[in-house]
Design goal:
By secondary structure, the protein is of the alpha/beta class. It contains five helices and five strands, in the order E-E-E-H-E-H-E-H-H-H. Helix 3 packs across helix 4.
């Protein structure tokens, strides 16, 4: 699985994390060269993705961007990720959903690559049966067990 936290345009970077068997194996950020022309930025991003991420992934996990607060350029950059990466299935996760899980797991800091890792953790938690309607104690116990089973890195970054 590859997880992408698309660039908001503030940093010019997008976070990414690769997962194998439920555990992150590589992560980092993609620096997107700035251009005042959006299509030039998207072209630059496409070139980087095709060169640096040639593997085929079983799942592309990307943040769900919708509603009036999602910037058009952010939605467009997400489309570039979807078009340029090789994947079999796509999953999208709302920011509030993965951030709630990050809060319950602990160790999360606001950084593009760490965001991508925790988005992946959230995807796995939902796939394993995590239920947002459980009481917080039950959620935390479930997530602690997953973190132990998958040997997730939760310490300070």
């Amino acid at each position: 699985m590859i997880v992408i936290d698309p660039s908001s345009g503030k940093t010019g970077e997008a976070g990414w994390a690769e997962f194998e068997a439920g555990t992150p194996t590589a992560w980092g950020t993609i620096s997107i060269p700035f251009s005042k022309v959006a299509f030039k930025r998207f072209n630059n991003l496409g070139k980087i993705l095709r060169e640096d991420f040639p593997a085929e992934y079983d799942v592309l996990m990307i943040e769900l961007l919708k509603g009036k607060y999602a910037k058009l350029v952010l939605k467009q950059s997400s489309a570039v990720f979807g078009a340029c990466l090789n994947w079999e299935k796509v999953m999208m996760i709302a920011p509030r959903s993965w951030q709630a899980i990050a809060d319950r797991l602990g160790g999360w800091i606001k950084r593009d690559d760490v965001d991508a890792i925790y988005m992946g953790y959230a995807a796995i938690a939902f796939a394993e049966g995590y239920e947002p309607k459980w009481k917080r104690e039950a959620q935390e116990a479930f997530l602690a067990e997953l973190a132990k089973d998958y040997n997730w890195k939760l310490e300070d970054w």
